[in-house]
Amino acid sequence: MTIKACVLHKQNDLRIDEVALADLGANDVLVAMTHGGICGSDMHYYQDGGFGPVRVTDPIILGHEVSGIVEAVGAEVGNLIIGDRVAVSPSQPCFECDYCQRNEFQHCAKMRFMGSARTIPHVQGGFRTKMVTGKGQCFKVNNATSLANAACSEPLAVCLHAAAQTGPLAGKAVLVTGAGPIGSLCAAVAKLQGAQSVVVTDLFDFTLNVAVKMGATKTINIGAQPEGIAEHIAEHGPFDIVFECSAAEPAILSAIIAVRPRGTIVQVGVTGSISLPINAIVGKEINFRGTHRFHPEFEQAVGLIDRGVIDVTPIITQTYPMKDAVEAFRTAKNREKAVKVQLKLDSVS
């Protein structure tokens, strides 16, 4: 049996292809896919053919923010039935290596992450009409929960893992640089965890307006107000925590200036080599933390969305049928009018 999938053959060469559907194993689930969110890594693969040393060398099905409906289950699957609505986790650690044994699953030495070109052969992703996956990748949501929202479990899990790098956020002054999907979701997590204030910066009013709906207490358009952060600090003092979500060098430098001595910067956005003022990091005793993916946080994210604790609806700004994937990727590039663009994976004709 073949199904349709959104396949990147090389840089700027995205096609809807017929691909083979894998056989259903005893512990597998066949999911009829419904929604898939376009992530920054998908954009890098499409626009640039990869990022850093990670390059697309063979055709790859993109997508790792996905959801759908269970269509069939293997003989040994006891926790899911046909008709269940699920968010599908892309994180597939081995559970056996040293990192997994230390519960550091996001650093699994044999990680297979859906839609990733980090390994050769590449790990195929979820932008397809049907997908066979392990039962452990599927997390149920209620009938009242939108499957579009369920597909946002993956980026929310990224933000929950980022927040876990900071210690308690309750009562803290938080700065979020970059109001894309991750920035807005970091604002939502900070608000949920009791931050006293959540200031979000970006270059575009459109994205900043979405951040307000997600929990920002104040926004600063740093293009229109280049002194906005400095003015805020002069009135309210420096920030305890910064989530740097833009990966832009000027934003990282501003984060180092904005955070208080012994404060924490969590670098969420990914970029290449940049110049950093090490003296400032040392002199202020800044806790500069990286954050990478997630694992247990995926289930937490599904629960928060399913119970309506975090409403991700505002970040979903456009939805396209899978047949219009190229147009969807072009829209996702335009940050003046898009935050999270999704594909409707069961719309292929």
From TrEMBL:
<comment type="similarity">
    <text>Belongs to the zinc-containing alcohol dehydrogenase family.</text>
</comment>
<dbReference type="InterPro" id="IPR002328">
    <property type="entry name" value="ADH_Zn_CS"/>
</dbReference>
<protein>
    <submittedName>
        <fullName>L-idonate 5-dehydrogenase</fullName>
    </submittedName>
</protein>
<dbReference type="InterPro" id="IPR013154">
    <property type="entry name" value="ADH-like_N"/>
</dbReference>
<keyword id="KW-0862">Zinc</keyword>
<dbReference type="Pfam" id="PF08240">
    <property type="entry name" value="ADH_N"/>
</dbReference>
<keyword id="KW-0479">Metal-binding</keyword>
<feature type="domain" description="Enoyl reductase (ER)">
    <location>
        <begin position="10"/>
        <end position="343"/>
    </location>
</feature>
<dbReference type="InterPro" id="IPR011032">
    <property type="entry name" value="GroES-like_sf"/>
</dbReference>
<dbReference type="GO" id="GO:0008270">
    <property type="term" value="F:zinc ion binding"/>
</dbReference>
<dbReference type="GO" id="GO:0016616">
    <property type="term" value="F:oxidoreductase activity, acting on the CH-OH group of donors, NAD or NADP as acceptor"/>
</dbReference>
<keyword id="KW-0560">Oxidoreductase</keyword>
<dbReference type="Pfam" id="PF00107">
    <property type="entry name" value="ADH_zinc_N"/>
</dbReference>
<dbReference type="InterPro" id="IPR013149">
    <property type="entry name" value="ADH-like_C"/>
</dbReference>
<dbReference type="InterPro" id="IPR020843">
    <property type="entry name" value="ER"/>
</dbReference>
<dbReference type="InterPro" id="IPR036291">
    <property type="entry name" value="NAD(P)-bd_dom_sf"/>
</dbReference>
